[in-house]
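Entry:
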Amino acid sequence: MEVFNTPNKVIITCNKRLSPYLQQEVKELGFDIVRAFPTGVELKVSINDTIKLNLNLRTASQILYSLKEFTANNPTELYEELSQIAWEELIQFDGYFSVSSNVDNETISTPLFANVKVKDAIVDRIKEKKGMRPNSGPDNNKAVVHLYWKDDRAEIFLDTSGETLAKHGYRKIPGKAPMLEALAASTIIASKWDGNSPFVNPMCGSGTLAIEAALIATNRKPGLLRMNYSFMHFIGYDETVFFQERRVLKDQINKKAAPQIIASDISEEAINVSKMNARTAGVEQLISFEVCDFAETHVPKEGGVILFNPEYGERLGTHSKLEITYKRMGDFMKQECKGYRGYIFTGNPDLAKKIGLRASRRIEFYNGKLDCRLLEYELYEGTREKTKVLYE
């Protein structure tokens, strides 16, 4: 099975509501999208093509290469179909693999049982052909096989990513309630920040938004911080393809980019964590860190983007302390951030009403399972200017 050079159906998954930003990234890399849906896109490419995608995408989660679509009404039929695949040409007999799944079938009470049937089909086939069986377990840092099974429709994939792409590898110390890196990158893309004007991030927490802004401005891709992917553990992998793509990542870094990125937090501990994370990401020198109340954050005069990701508590009921904070954020943007586009990311619509400004856009996101909005505020200075809206 020559999968590394054979184009086939590939699904790139992402968290819900990140699909528009994933689509933009995929197109910018020069790939044609066959189909887009709320949690991803479909392409027709080879596994060697997925190497480029794995190294470059900021907003994706997994990149899945389809091996076979088939009908399976029950675990026995699933096993029989999977046993026909030449697994001995994909997974080393002395190797290691894990199985993940997305299962909705009435004959399966737990996805773990479906995973076991996939594992059995693979190891039995390889043992029959090679006389030895590979090891398997829960670790997804080697070869990963993914099963999609809904009703009687099943599809088996090679997960070329393994560990999720949504985490970008620099956040060794996460901090309190951090924003997932893929979500942070998506909010910055949604803000239409140009990468040159100032980017201000009060209440920065562990620094994810400021770091992602610096990575975007300098064209540093996530693959620079990662040396292990699932595609490396399938038969046919050519490391020269990986290192060639990685060389491209290094060559395309914009070392001349020097945007003003300012990250502030009232917690000295949070700023120390942010600095360590930024150092790991290779962008510490691009970010000005400040320990202060958000209202004392330095805001350059030339205009740009200011983005808050404040606490938003529980959806039901608001807290008087947070109500005051949200009102202060609105006052601060109105008084100190003229000429900027202001953004507040929140999952609490009641608190959002306390901001006291009228949002020009309400961009839908999820943070985990919580329904959230990125609220945009045009903080005009002088006459109102029309801005191009990329996403609704």
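Residues 335 and 379 are 9 Å apart (CA to CA).
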